[in-house]
Write a structure and sequence with these properties.
The protein is 66% helix and 16% strand. It is an alpha+beta fold. The chain folds into three domains: 23-98, Methane Monooxygenase Hydroxylase, Chain G, domain 1, CATH 1.20.58; 132-272; 273-412, Nuclear Transport Factor 2, Chain: A. Strands 4-3-2-1-5 form a five-stranded antiparallel sheet. Helix 4 (101-117) runs antiparallel to helix 6 and helix 6 (133-158) runs parallel beside helix 9 (181-206).
Length: 415
Amino acid sequence: MKNTVRIRNGLFLLFVISAGLLVYKAYLGYEKLTAAKKAEHFYTSQQYVKSETFYKNAINNRSILYKENEIQSTYTMLSNNNKEVSALLEKADSLYRNENYSGLIKTYKSYLDLLEKKQNDPVFLDYDQHFNVQNEFDTLLSNTKKNLCKQMDANVNNEMFENEYFIAILGELPNEVYGSADKKTEELTSHFINYDERKYSLLEKSLRYNQLKKTINRQISSYHKIGLEDFWLKETLKKIEKAHELKMAALEEERKRKEEELKKAMEAEKAKDPAFQEEIMTVVNEYAIGWMSAYNQLDTSYFVHITPELLNFFHDRFEEIRLNQTIFTGELLYTEFDLDSFKYRMDDEEESVELHVVLTMNSASYAEGENYEMKETANPWYYKLIHTNDGWKLSERKELVHFNYSNTRIYEFAY
């Protein structure tokens, strides 16, 4: 009796389990059919992103076989579009986080090319709209612009200008980031004017002119590459060139001044050199002796150490004396040199020396047949001598009114 009850209970339990399994399978079948129907509904109404979830549920439900190939094919197509758009956004985000802004811009351009090709693909366009791809790129590119502008400020604050990669990247950013092509030009021009004013106010203090000019020309080239007119840098370059010209002129003036000071110091030193003074006084004494002989004989051949121009002067003077029938007789007693009067000059055209000397002599001028008496006279003279290939030559002479006897050297002549 007990065994019969157990068997009956077991059969009943088995029946319940079987019935439950049948009900569950029927439920799963209903779920699959429902998912498939909803997937088809959203797909036909072009709500492809929503339909993907239901296609996925339908394909994962194996309780019954229902349009398996069609569902699998459609789901694969939808999934591929999902992956393509998702991968694009993940790549863009990764490039931005790694500060690979050039790569980000290239990816955005690739996206625009892809969007152009997919204009007639409603599935791709639905995924593009669902993920707000354009908005995501707009945000990343806008943040890129802000980061690059911050880098400009960092360069100025740190006074480090070796890396100016942001110029090219700001130029590469699409016009839409700025609003339009005109607004892009206006905004970049404003940014770079501000940046360069601060930059070159610092570099003018640390770089030499040639380095500064090279830096500006290199930056002008960078602006040309992104299509910007660099009028402000050209003005900066003109200002720097003008400042350099003024600086060079001032330095040249200072160089000439110091050169002139050195030259004058050397000239003064040589003028005071006893050996040099002795050389000049010897030349003057030899000239004075010749001068006295020439006047006594009215013969210019006695002159020594004089220039041709001065020799011609004496030749005319002697002719005048002959015409006046005047006779000169004299003897040189001594010469007295003012040692403080020596002035030596050396320039590109000539080397010269100036000095004061007193010629003291016994002399008389008279007409032929007249009685005469020798009289001692002392005549102070200014002499200028120039240096030639034949040595020192007297080129100028004039009588003086005053003579300084405080520091002199006397040479006496014996006959």
